[in-house]
Known about the structure:
Distance between the termini: 56 Å
Structural class: alpha+beta
Strand content: 5-15%
Number of domains: 3
Strand order of the largest sheet: 1-2-4-3
Largest sheet: 4 strands, mixed
Shape: flat
Number of strands: 4
Helix content: 40-55%
Amino acid sequence: MTIKEPDFIDLSTPTGPMRVHRFLPYEGDWPAVILYSEIYQLTGPISRLAARLACEGFEVLVPEIYHEYEVLADLTGGICASLPTEESFYDPETADLMNKYITRNPKYTAEEAHRVFRMMENKLCDPFSGAQMVAGVHGGGSPVMETITMMARYDLEPLKGIARYLAGIDPEMPRYERPNATPRAMLDKFKKTVAEGDKNACK
Length: 203
């Protein structure tokens, strides 16, 4: 089946426009499918798969589902990756220069600008956000990321008691209360899990 030249449309979303690439049969009305891409968006393999589906009689839509990160990057520019260290803003030798060059809008203090850019850095460039982005890319399909998520968010030892009850080993099911975990605590646990895995791999 002949298909049209691929094109795109920009959909309005609460977090800004989201580009959606379209692969359409040349004529007629056909059922539509949504093809979710990977983190690199519309790659060669994704394009070939979309074109193949269109040749089979589907209108294929490929949304750029990670456009929220683009919005943050557009807001901050390169400073989200090159922001000076926290300590340099309070070091007597460098504080004046840091506050001078971090200021953008005179309506906001240097400290307020610093806090905003630091928040953007935490969302885009720190280790925890990197781990979260990888988890988002893999979704539910990667056993490795499922393991990372479980190890980061849950204490497995108490859950073993529930598994023993469900398997019929123990007569009573223990009560499990998951403690509230901050993102930083989750990152620390993730690092510890990775370190232990590296240590075991070297044995």
